[in-house]
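Notes from hallway chat w/ T.B., transcribed later so I don't forget. T.B. wanted the structure written out for a chain they're using in a teaching module, and asked if we could keep both sequence and structure tokens in one place. Agreed to drop them here.
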Amino acid sequence: LTADFDVGGWQEYYTATEKQVKKIDLPPGAPVNAALGILGITGLTAYFGLFRIGCPVKGETVVISGAAGATGSVAAQIAKHVLGCRVVGIAGGSVKCRFLVEELGLDAAIDYKAEEGLDKALRRCCPDGIDVYFDNIGGEQLNACLRRMRRNGRVVMCGAISGYDDLGSGKSSEPGIPHQMALAIVSSRLRLQGFIVLDYVKEYPSALQEIASWMQQGKLKNAETVVVGLQNAAQAFKGLFTGSNTGKLTVKIAEPSGQSKL
């Protein structure tokens, strides 16, 4: 597995130096793909976002947007099955919402595509408010959750995929944080904090050890969508922005092998 984020690309073969690769030790029964997902950067992002920024405790209500996606699905499982929180996931489509409740065991799921408004749905699923909001989407989903935050609530600013298409265009199709809500952030003592997973690189080994242990205990599932064939990589990448995947989205270019084909 390449250890340098500035090398490699969409290709079948790659020549690397010793310093650019590292050995991955997976727990028994874990698929090789897990090193790119729950036992890779995806899982680490969910882990540090929760434990270093959100800091939820047992019994608190945690809401996660993009909950059926790569990072969201891991964060949701950790919050529910490791920390003992009440977890509500926001996703697009009934299939993803059933996946969150029936497969991952969340307490509730909100289909933002089917709801007339997120405010009403959040009041229904979070009658006592939200303690921790793990934001992968931004835009109106962020604003709706901010309106339901309890005093001293924490917002994990992990991503803002709803606005990625407009980056560099000079425009924004999503609403910003309204002035009145900004005042409410102050009066409710809310904390909104962004982070980059590379901030915690020295803690990766211990974090991965914990995640692997939770997998072996049956607390976490490796959710993924695998697209076969390098020729389908561009379409798969486009699917990241249209919500075509459940869990981590990867492109399979060959069967796993312990030996080089070169």
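Follow-up for T.B.: Confidence is low (pLDDT under 50) at residues 1-5, 162-169. Might be a good example for the class.
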